[in-house]
């Protein structure tokens, strides 16, 4: 057993817990009850601290002190690995392939077992030994007079006077210059402005078996001078024919083009030897977006048609532009849509013909060129970050024009296995890649198959783990920044299974996030596989299937915040089901989220026509307004592509003239029926301890003004800024108002320790002497939302914002609780409460992305009550969700499928939950029937 005795971290109330080794343990309970405090802030924190203590004293000096969690004793603790949601790598160079290490093995496979092809002729590249070259020369040219040459210069300009002089000193008499064999003369030179090909004549002879030794020496010399490559040409033919190339390196036998020997770094987009030189291995480039530069073609340039230049003003740029227009027969008042397209392109890209422009002073004129608006934008990059951000709004990201998004050098893409290069393999979905690799040895030569055996074994095993955790729809080249928290967590889980460690304690934070019910069993089996390998697995989870599959369950409660932090039940599923807790109430059916008696009818609709972004297959769908719409479907089917990356940016551009670029679509009708858009997603609301629910919701500004109005503050002359912990004056300068000091851990996450100067109170002594109702500003920060609602009930501006937080079930949070300690679900509900506290228009469209993340059954019930009230006020609601309790209460369901990745992107079913449940093609419908 792992035994935890007397845990008091955060809201834990001196609890004792036992966790069996080599088991799958689920810690469940209400959001905020203390699950993460037990799993991560107690067990994992102690494991991390013990690991640091194993380092030498010299190493520890670089880390500072890691505070021991507030617990009496932990025994039986194994080495701990935490797999959290917040660790997604946002580096554009990080991909699914690099995170899982699959791409490393694929690079090795291509470096050792691929076949190279010529980029010009498509022929298979060859390499010869010197002995083989001698044999081929005798066989091909027996009895013919030939020259053996060494290629020296290929397709370069220059006079090469010194080169020819060097040949003469070495005793060479002839060279082949631009296809003609000539004698090398003293002071010989070429036209320096023309492109030349120069080959040195090593020997001239009629090959025969008796001349084999001479040919061998000539071949060796030609290889030395030609850096591993030689060519032969017949001399007696009246009509010259193309030379025949021979090389020790990989070489095209027709053109003589040679590639370097492939190595793993040849196929790495993070290495200079493999990365595309144009995009540096990112696969994308930034290009000017003409639609953003000229958003309204009905305007004239004087009226501000060119957005980066703005409206006309007396400047040299506009003087040049006016001269360009006059020459083309226009004026500054001519609307853009009345100009020829070539003239518009000249405005954007520049014109090489000189222009006569008058100078403001002295009436002189000068001849200048118009560089173009795009060149003007590029010049603004030199202004630093501000200039860069300003220019970025007129640009769009697009696949690299050189590598086409493949990220690699051209040469790297001509090494193929089974007629596929490494970029094509990386762009396949994991499930299709696994299928392609099945039996690939039969499609290889015997030598290739022998070399590929070990890399293929590792690749197949890792791909199987990724499929097992429900990620078969991803591709290896998928950027890690685009992954959800659940996806990145399951990728790391698959990587850990592949690492085959034993006697390790794994702690996971809701790995089922973003996973359709259909794929749940795959995830559970993966966790069991990790357990069966000899490890202990602890999962913080709310999913019913996961709870039922667990060997051991710890239910933390009974409620959240100050009213939580106790062990409500502990044991096997059959043990805890006999206890009466909020969790067991829902597991046994004593409590349930009720299905509404009736479904709302829509009042109008938004119609998306021909959406083709990512994996969407020309989707056309009606989304009813004024109702609760749930977009469901298996992971990776295209839900986010349709709603978050097509509808939302298009509506944002329509309502707010934003620069968001939606994915491709033909038309969206009905946008005019919405007058406000609110997006509530899972992104963190703050990345430092300075951000907290009070600052994010905006209530902190009102509280500071209230303290400014107190008698104590008036006497001392304190303004509202005095009560801000983000500016100098009233805050503690030792920790700069954070209440904690940050210790950088180098290769581990940063650690925050309580400030010794202010003891975590954030403010200096003078500021803390100002009180409202006997509470100072730090006391207010330490209040829970529930306490503060009562405390500020007579201050409407503060009360309404706090009440909104309480209504979404977050009354247990402290006002000053750092946002770094909030779960994804809590962050999302803070955002939701912030929007609820604002006045809606009745025609507001709310888009929520998996709002049940981190929520217990009871929390989901509270949240659904809030969402239903929003819709009752006339607003429209679109929720992307997998939770069946949310799906079953929606008015309208849009089910996307059939599969994830390439197998998805279609509307499988739509209608009420009852209608979808009767659709036999719908995976979501099958599970709805059971509810």
What does this protein look like?
The chain is of the alpha+beta class and about 950 residues long. The chain folds into five domains: about 1-90 and about 485-590, P-loop containing nucleotide triphosphate hydrolases (Rossmann fold), CATH 3.40.50; about 125-260, Ribosomal protein L1/L10, rRNA-binding domain (Ribulose 1,5 Bisphosphate Carboxylase/Oxygenase, 2-Layer Sandwich), CATH 3.30.190.20; about 285-400, ABC transporter ATPase domain-like (Helicase, Ruva Protein, domain 3, Orthogonal Bundle); about 595-685 and about 820-930, Rossmann fold; about 685-820, ABC transporter ATPase  like domain (ABC transporter ATPase like fold, Up-down Bundle), CATH 1.20.1580. It is about 35% helix and about 20% strand. It is built from 33 helices and 37 strands. The strands form eleven sheets. The chain has a six-stranded mixed beta sheet, with helices on both faces. It has a six-stranded antiparallel beta sheet with strand order 9-8-10-7-11-12. It has a six-stranded mixed beta sheet with strand order 29-34-35-27-36-37, sandwiched between helices. The longest helix has 23 residues, at about 445-470. The chain starts with a strand and ends with a helix. It is found in: Cytoplasm. Keywords: ATP-binding, Cytoplasm, DNA damage, DNA excision, DNA repair, DNA-binding, Excision nuclease, Metal-binding, Nucleotide-binding, Repeat, Zinc, Zinc-finger.
